[in-house]
Write a structure and sequence with these properties.
This protein is of the alpha+beta class and about 200 residues long. The chain has one domain: Beta Barrel (M1 Pyruvate Kinase, Domain 3), CATH 2.40.33.20. About 15% of the residues lie in helices and about 30% in strands. It is built from three helices and twelve strands; from the N terminus they run E-E-E-E-E-E-H-E-E-E-H-H-E-E-E. Helix 2 packs across helix 3. The chain is globular, with a radius of gyration of 18 Å.
Length: about 200
Amino acid sequence: MTDQPALIPEEFRIAPKFKVDGKVEGVFRTASPDDFQTTAAENLELTFEGVPGDRHAGFTRKSGGREPWYERGTEMCNERQVSILAVDELDEVARKMEIEDLKSEWIGGNILISAIANLTRVPPRTRLVFEGGTVIRVDGDNAPCRFAGAAIAANYPDREGLDLLFPKVARGLRGLVGFVEKPGVIKPGETVTAHIPEQWIYPRT
């Protein structure tokens, strides 16, 4: 019989599950699958493939630089169907970049939320349950990249280096990515409830 590592329950400091409410401040979509930047919409229809016609829609996607364990271009499950951003975090990134404004549309946001503190740090497996019944399952935080930084820089042509500055200052503030668990329509003004699961730190043995 293979020896099993000893369980040390006391090292698992489990934080209980809880819920927190926020508000949908805006919804956005791309005009075509070739677009990165999004535009404001009256509502956002979500299917099991994400936002129909959006750049990130689909049951599967091709792996890229974020997945070094796969050969680039490998077809994989699409856990990045939807981009969720927070008003206060965008304001903080703008402050750090010393720019007047940072709009969610510039960096491809689909849903802009307020009143959920530290949104980017919401853990994986969190369910975002919207008032109209739509549910998005959080995969994790969205790492900031130079591509998004270049989109911001295009709005400030008199400033140099913003494309490189964004990845440096936006880590932990770039919002979340997730996939559609229950389809539906999301509208600005809706309440969204984050169902935070139990959390623990898995210790090294």
